[in-house]
Write a structure and sequence with these properties.
The complex is a heterodimer of chains A (396) and B (398).
Chain A: H1 7-23, H2 26-34, H3 41-50, H4 68-80, H5 87-101, H6 104-115, E1 121-124, E2 140-144, E3 147-158, E4 165-171, E5 182-188, E6 194-200, E7 206-217, E8 222-223, H7 230-265, E9 267-268, E10 271-272, H8 277-304, H9 309-337, H10 349-358, H11 366-375, H12 378-384
Parallel strand pairs in A: 1-4
Antiparallel strand pairs in A: 2-3, 3-7, 4-5, 5-8, 6-7, 9-10
Chain B: H1 7-23, H2 26-33, H3 40-53, H4 71-83, H5 91-104, H6 107-119, E1 124-127, E2 143-147, E3 150-157, E4 168-174, E5 185-191, E6 197-203, E7 209-222, E8 226-227, H7 233-243, H8 251-267, E9 269-270, E10 273-274, H9 279-307, H10 315-338, H11 367-373, H12 384-397
Helix pairs in contact in B: 1-4, 4-8, 5-6, 5-7, 8-9, 8-10, 9-10, 10-11, 10-12
Classes of the chains: A alpha+beta (396), B alpha+beta (398).
Chain lengths: 396, 398
């Protein structure tokens, strides 16, 4: 048992910090948000030079064969700087899916350019009714002659506004809610049968909704096994959930530091706020929430890329639900302890509060993950690869 | 980073399990698992088994008869032995005065007392709190006045756990009145059979006798029973309180109690189904289990840093706060499983020899008493509010 970072990880964090200090000052981020830019190509290319776009991908395609812990340390930094570039959607989810279930040809064609930052690829999976049920897919794909024809709507596509290509999930058999019968297709975002609308989220990042009728795709566009996309989707969503916890950790740590600084600086009743015991204890409770979340995150990070779907799901669900509570508490108390100033739009804290407010809804919320945690069955998870709760369950 | 147990660590866990299954007396284990009343002899039998194996002082250096296990090994030992129903050993000798003597004691003190702690010959208790000095411990007033080769002690200690079982007490006493209240405090060792020492029981919420008042009236203690320098007892006392950092979380016991809670909830029926399948109850258990998992990971993070010789941080206080909150929530949920059956107050049913019938299921009888008893955990060893003050000082930098 050893919880220290390796030398490589420490070097990576230092390099990333230096890069973000130079290229991601709060004013620069704010300008990007105001200019409605979904991402900065320069920053993305910088990420590629730092090697983080291929962090966990195999060396064969130009990646670094990194671990979940590597992703954790990178995401924690991105969280501290509130990076809006869609790292999780591109690297953790879409590239992860290609690596998990793509053919050799797909990997050879797609991965090197993704790793170099030359193109972008994201998953279009969520449908508005979908909420947290990953098997909710109503988009239909049917075969006509030698081609696939897709019709449907996808919503809240993270990273969609800057994507060159999409991986679209569609139903090739069964009906919405079935785990079997989901298939992944790759499509160019410029395809004229796809129409879309971009809009911002709370944190200033920009997402995309798309709609397509009779989108025609060749047979080579199928990624992975026909009808069997559910397990790989669930796997990359778990990894994304872990990565978003690490990002929330960085955001919570920064919000906490800002709050402690404020308590020391601000004077009322002739003394600094940090002299008031009730405020000290509140700050301590923020600190404890962050430390406990951090501990559980390391377990999730160690299992997110591991061999056991059960350990992966169990540790990720534990972390994601604990983080939901921590993110809520830390962000709410950060506002409260800043008093009136905490309500202002222009205080840098506000961006962290908004980021943390988004946390629960993405990649499965507290209720979903705690329910999954308590219903997991080891054998079932490891043999089928399915780890979501069944609609009815038997107790062990 | 290696967040799972290594092969050696897993082997060690198996070795611990084998030993405990073989050597822990079955009747003691059953009492612990079923929350029955534990007596001094129960603890002594388990103490003796560990002593014979050479495992009684995992954290002591080898030269003094310890195992010199690292913090991760100690955690594994705690978890494995607790799971099988090992009773809690008395901490006052092994975890408190023992390490203090190793660090500050004279050669004679070490030679005399340490082997007696290891063998269990001495049962120690702790003379810290006083009626007027709880959280503000440094305000203590029990006086020791030098008289030739002796100190003469007068005053009163309180909340003294198992003083009725102990033959030795270590005390913080005032040897000098000084402007700064932390100065002039000394630590002395006292035989409980000395003239003028009187133990008076305090009955706690649950109706049990666990803690006591200890009165000192002209009690003569030889000067060689002074530990460390005269007047420097405060820093020795603080060393003692911060010594055991990871065990304080009680993860081993909480894991056992969680398993017991799930077992009880799987047998107790509610609307035709086991209570464990009630969505609301199940969610409460899951939330607790996740908190416990986070606590265990924190313990391991602290433990692995301990071994690399890092400076003590505010972690011990986090472990105390979260550990005791979880212990208390477990007692709440266990009591909730029993429902009405937890309400009858039948102290005789907490004894192992009870053969009568309780109105509800047998498991329910001791749950309310245990719930009440465990309220102490957030008060003893520095209240959870004092722990927050400690974290605030270190983290907020006040």
């Amino acid at each position: 048992m050893n919880f220290s970072l390796t030398e490589d990880q420490t070097l990576l964090v230092d390099a990333l910090k230096r890069f973000l200090d130079k290229n991601y000052a709060p004013e620069m981020r704010q300008r990007m948000v105001l200019d409605q830019e979904p991402m900065s190509r320069e920053v993305w290319t910088g990420f590629a030079s730092l090697g983080i776009l291929g962090l966990t991908l195999s060396e064969e395609h130009g990646g670094f064969s990194g671990s979940g812990i590597d992703v954790m340390v990178v995401m924690r930094e991105l969280g501290k700087y509130l990076v809006i570039e869609p790292y999780i959607p591109n690297v953790v989810i879409a590239a992860g899916l290609v690596e998990l279930c793509g053919s050799d040809w797909h990997k050879k064609v797609l991965l090197p350019e993704l790793i170099k930052g030359e193109s972008t690829l994201v998953l279009a999976h969520t449908e508005m009714q979908g909420h947290q049920d990953l098997s909710h897919v109503e988009t239909i794909a049917r075969q006509e002659g030698g081609v696939w024809v897709l019709s449907g709507k996808k919503t809240l596509i993270l990273g969609g506004a800057s994507a060159d290509r999409f991986i679209i999930s569609a139903r090739t058999s069964g009906s919405s809610g079935d785990k079997d019968g989901i298939t992944l297709f790759i499509a160019e975002s410029l395809d004229e049968s796809i129409s879309g609308q971009v809009y911002p989220l709370l944190d200033g990042s920009r997402v995309l909704d798309i709609q397509f009728d009779n989108l025609r795709l060749g047979s080579e566009s199928v990624i992975g096994t026909l009808d069997r996309a559910f397990a790989p989707i669930e796997c990359v969503y778990d990894r994304a959930a872990m990565a978003s916890c690490a990002e929330a950790l960085g955001a919570m740590e920064t919000a906490y530091e800002m709050t402690v600084d404020y308590l020391k600086d601000r004077h009322q009743f002739g003394q600094s706020l940090s002299q008031f015991q009730v405020l000290q204890h509140r700050a301590v409770d923020m600190f404890i929430n962050i430390e406990e979340a951090h501990s559980l995150l390391t377990l999730a990070a160690a299992n997110a890329w591991g061999d056991s779907p059960y350990e992966r799901a169990r540790s990720v669900s534990a972390a994601k639900s604990l983080f939901a509570r921590a993110a809520r508490f830390v962000s709410q108390q950060a506002v409260q302890l800043h008093g009136g100033m905490g309500m202002t739009y222009e205080l840098p804290l506000s961006n962290y509060v908004k980021k943390l407010t988004m946390f629960d809804a993405l990649f499965g919320g507290e209720r979903f993950h705690r329910s999954r945690f308590s219903n997991l069955r080891k054998e079932e998870a490891d043999t089928t690869g399915f780890v979501s709760p069944k609609k009815s369950w038997k107790q062990l | 980073m290696e967040v799972t147990y290594s092969k050696e660590e897993l082997n060690f866990a198996a070795e611990v399990r084998d030993f405990v299954s073989e050597s822990l007396p079955g009747d003691v284990a059953r009492k612990v698992l079923e929350h029955k009343r534990i007596f001094k002899e129960d603890v002594q039998r388990w103490h003796a088994a560990l002593h014979e194996k050479g495992w009684i002082a995992p954290h002591w250096p080898k030269e003094h008869g310890g195992c010199a296990w690292n913090a991760v090994q100690r955690h594994i030992f705690d978890v494995e032995s607790a799971a099988l129903g090992a009773p809690r050993l008395s901490p006052f000798g092994l975890h408190m005065i023992g390490p203090v003597l190793i660090a500050f004691g004279t050669e004679d003190q070490k030679k005399y007392y340490l082997p007696r702690i290891l063998s269990g010959e001495d049962w120690w208790c702790q003379g810290y709190s006083e009626p007027g000095s709880g959280s503000d411990l440094a305000s203590l007033k029990t006086k020791a006045v030098r008289d030739g080769d002796s100190f003469v002690i007068n005053g009163q200690k309180t909340w003294t756990t198992h003083a009725q079982w102990a033959n030795m007490i270590f005390c913080l006493v005032r040897t000098e009145v000084s402007e700064r209240k932390q100065n002039g405090i000394s630590m002395v060792l006292c035989d409980m059979s000395t003239d003028g020492v009187e133990v008076r029981p305090i009955v706690t919420l649950d109706g049990e006798h666990e803690v006591n008042e200890v009165w000192f009236s002209d009690v003569k203690v030889p000067v060689q029973n002074l530990v460390g320098e005269e007047g420097r007892g405060w820093s020795i006392g603080k060393f003692l309180l911060s010594h055991e950092r990871t065990g304080i979380a009680g993860v081993g016991v909480s894991k056992r109690e969680l398993a017991y809670l799930k077992h009880l909830a799987s047998e107790e029926m509610y609307e035709g189904k086991p209570l464990l399948e009630d969505p609301i109850f199940k969610d409460r258990i899951a939330e607790l289990e996740i908190d416990l998992l986070a606590l265990e990971m924190t313990v391991l993070r602290v433990a692995s840093r301990d071994d690399s010789g890092g400076e003590p941080g505010p972690e011990a206080s986090i472990l105390k706060i979260k550990g005791t909150e979880i212990q208390q929530r477990l007692t709440e949920l266990q009591m909730e499983v029993a429902g009405l059956a937890a309400l009858p107050y039948l102290p005789m049913a907490w004894g192992d020899s009870f053969i009568g019938k309780t109105p509800g299921p047998a498991y329910a009888a001791p749950l309310a008493a245990r719930y009440l008893n465990m309220r102490k955990t957030s008060i003893y060893g520095g209240t959870n509010e004092i722990q927050r003050n400690i974290i605030a000082r270190r983290v907020l930098g006040l």
